Every structure is written in C-alpha cells, then in structure tokens.
Amino acid sequence: MTSKPRLVFISPRFLFPNDSGGKIRTTQILRGMKGGRFDITLVSPALPGVEDRFEEELESVADHFFYWPESEPKTWLDRILRYRHLLSRLPFPVATDRTKTGEVLINQLLEKKPDLVIFDFLHAAVFAPSRIYCHSLLFTHNVETEIFKRHAEVVSNPLMKMVWQSQYQKMHRFEMESIPLFDTVVAVSERDGDVFKKTSGKHRTEVISTGVDLDYFSYRPPNGEPRVVFTGSMDWLANIDGIRYFMPEVWPLIERAAPNASMTVVGRNPPQSLIDQAQEKGFSWDFTGFVDDVRPHVWEAAAYIVPLRVGGGTRIKVFEAMAMGIPVVSTGLGVEGLSIEAGKHYMRAETAEEMAEAVVKLLSAPDLARQYAERARQYVEDHCSSCAVARQFEDICWRTLYPEQEHAL
User: Fold this and answer.
1) Residues 154, 241 contacting (CB under 8 angstroms)
2) Span 39-96, pLDDT tens digits
3) 240 and 172, same structural domain?
4) How far apart are CA 81 and CA 22, in angstroms?
5) How many domains does the chain have?
6) Is the peptide bond between 271 and the residue preceding it cis, with omega within 30 degrees of 0?
7) Domain check: are 258 and 184 in the same one?
8) I need a surface site. Which of 23, 111, 197, 347 has the fewest CB within 10 A?
9) Residues 205, 313, 349, 251, Cα dihedral to 10°
C-alpha cells in the first residue's frame, strides 16, 4: 500500500502510439511525474492486448493501468450510425467518446476515493459525475469552443456551415457546464488561460508551458535539400483543412519558383481525396501515413510548414521542428499561444503568396535557413524542457490537493 497521494488520470484516448500532439504532451507529463509525489493510475479506452503490446510504455507513465473496451466503427453501417450523434445535446466528438463501459469503470475507481482525479481534454469531462467527491483537475489542450467556431467561419458549404455553427453552440454549452465541476483548470498557453478565466469565471486557472524532449528531438542544421514537410494527424479536421488549402493555393507558387521542390505530409490516415489530388496535379508529394518516428522525415526537409486556418491550443510539433533545426513557416494561428517571435524564431505568412515566398526563401538561401534554425533551437533549449513542464504540472496537482501549502512550494 503506497503512502503517496493517489492520482487517477482519465484520458479519452489510449496514449500509444504517440501519434498526436495531445497524446505526446500528456505522455511527456506523466512520464516526468512517474516516481514522483503521486501514485498514478491511468484510465482510458483501449483495444484488447494493449497491456502486453505497450507494456514498457505504460510502465513508464503510470503505476497502474485500467481500460474500457475501445468502440471504433467496424463496418460502413457503424460509421453511418455514428452520425446520429449530431442530434445529441452533446457536441459530436463528446457524444461519440461517451460509453457506458467507460462510465462504469470510472465510477468504480472514483468510489475508491482517490486523492486527486484529472480529466484529460474537455471531452473527458463527459465521464465526470455531477459532483466529484475528491479534488479534481481538468487538463485542457485547446479551447475547444474556438475550434468549432473557426470551422464554421472558414467552411463555404451552407449546410456544413450550419452543422459547424450548431456544433459550436453545443460545445460552448458543454464547456460552460463542465468547467465549474473542477477545482483547477490547466491551460497550455497564457492566451488559453485568459479565455477560460473570462468565459468561466473559474477561480483557479493555471498555465503550463509546452515541453519538448530535447535529447530525442536533437538538432541538425538544415541539409539544403529542397524538401518541405508537414507533420500532424491527417484525420484531424484542422490539419485536413490546412493541407487542402496549401496544396492548390500555395504549392503551385512554390513549384513555379523552385521546380525541384518536393513535399512530405507525415501523419496517420490521410484522406484518399488529398492523395488523389496531388497525383492528378503531378505534384511531387508523398503522404507517409502513420510512422513510428517522424524525425527522419523532418530532418530531410529544409522548411517546415504550419498552414493552419482553424484549431486551438498550442502546437507541440512547432517546438519539435524548432528543436530539430528545421525552419518554420506558419500562419499566426498555427503558432497561437506560443511566445515565439516572427522574423526571429519563425517566418509568419498569412496569405498564399506570403507562405510561398517564405518557403522559397528558405529553400534557396541556406544561410538564412541556418540562422532561423539556430535561433529556434536556442529558444526551445531556454524555455521548453519536457522535464521542467512535468514539474510544473506536478506542482499544480500538489497545489490543487493541498491549497493550504501553496506558498510553501
């Protein structure tokens, strides 16, 4: 029996493989906390057999692991029936996460009265009881309401605009109803923290930095090859929208100025329509799908793009690229919440013309690319150690559990 405070960490996604920014952030924090001040129980959905397949990974982040069966659509009928959740009072991604088996398991664990329970992502709050009888924390990786609002603003199809507006309203209601349940809300940027303070009136909103494993994402100077790279889950709508915009609007301008340029899109489940579109246009593009290690693909590139028009939170992948020495070209929204300086740590581009011009400069001017790479690496070394971020998060957990000791930390 441990004498440490018992922490239950509830994730709406199985953390492995680490194929999305949220999973990476959560894994880094739990790994940094393992063996520290808390006895950690991780709870999530999962497929049978994961305990054996990912035994080492699970042991690195938690003292105990429990899961409920993951419910993924297996047939075309299952996929169609999922859309019935559009009629739910809950926003679609929250309604599809909710399962009876998950509720039962989480209630059983909460009945054992842990000292602290953490709900990872706003979506996980769907499993929270109406009253939580222990100290509690909500870890937000985005302002989810903003993401839905931005989708509604950029979509052109009238029917889809109506759907996104409806989902935005549902997510806003869910956010406003869920946040007051928790003692502490943790945000991933000062900007997000300010949003939660203003919209919810929550008395305790804390902010953590975005962390990077600086040894794993080691620095290599740009290699001079005319290759551009994007990394991100390609089944996430914000990433799909960004590449769907970048391909027809930006790439032809780059190709005209740099005919030898090529593009790699790294990320799981790319839509076949995008793959087909690149092939039909004769573009020198490669969609890798899921990869175990993104680093070789990033190190091969001379420029890293973030052409996002919707989204929220902070992009871990930006700091990873900066750590690896690949100059970043991004929209302002793509680096939103990151305290980095345009023209120093990355090149900012809001229009197709600006983005193409910035990429071509990096491809054609190795000295300029190296200057951006060196300044960016120095920034992440100074501000973004994943170990330091894990300590920040653990301190917040401790203050939530023992608010009377806050000034003693």
Assistant:
1) yes
2) 999 999 999 888 889 999 999 999 999 999 986 656 666 566 677 877 889 998 898 8
3) no
4) 27
5) 2
6) no
7) no
8) 111
9) 180
Q: Is the pLDDT of residue 213 over 90?
A: no
- Token couple for 322: 């900066």
Query: Do residues 38 and 58 both lie within one domain?
Result: yes
Q: Are residues 353 and 397 in the same domain?
A: no
Q: How does pLDDT run across 277-326, given as a tens digit for each residue?
A: 999 999 999 999 999 999 999 999 999 999 998 865 457 889 999 999 99
Whether 145 is in a domain gets the answer yes
Domain of 390: which CATH number?
Answer: 3.40.50.2000
Could you tell me if 351 and 284 lie in one domain? yes
Rounded distance, CA 308 to CA 147, Å?
Answer: 11
Same domain, 232 and 196: no
- SS3 letters for the chain? CCCCCEEEEECCCCCCCCCCHHHHHHHHHHHHHCCCCCEEEEEEEECCCHHHHCHHHHHHHCCEEEEEECCCCCCHHHHHHHHHHHHCCCCHHHHHHCCHHHHHHHHHHHHCCCCEEEEECHHHHHHCCCCCCCEEEEECCCCHHHHHHHHHHHCCCHHHHHHHHHHHHHHHHHHHHHHHHCCEEEECCHHHHHHHHHHHCCCCEEECCCCECCCCCCCCCCCCCCEEEEECCCCCHHHHHHHHHHHHHCHHHHHHHCCCCEEEEECCCCCHHHHHHHHHCCCCEEEEECCCCCHHHHHCCCEEEECCCCCCCCCHHHHHHHHHCCCEEECCHHHCCCCCCECCCEEECCCHHHHHHHHHHHHHCHHHHHHHHHHHHHHHHHHCEHHHHHHHHHHHHHHHHCHHHHHHC
Residues written for the chain: 409
Does some domain include residue 1? Answer: no
Residue 219 domain-assigned (yes or no): no
The structure's pTM equals 0.73
Q: What pLDDT is recorded for position 230? A: 96
Q: Say if residue 67 is in the same domain as residue 83.
A: yes
**Mean of the per-residue pLDDT values for the chain?**
90
Structural domain harbouring 190: 6-211+386-408
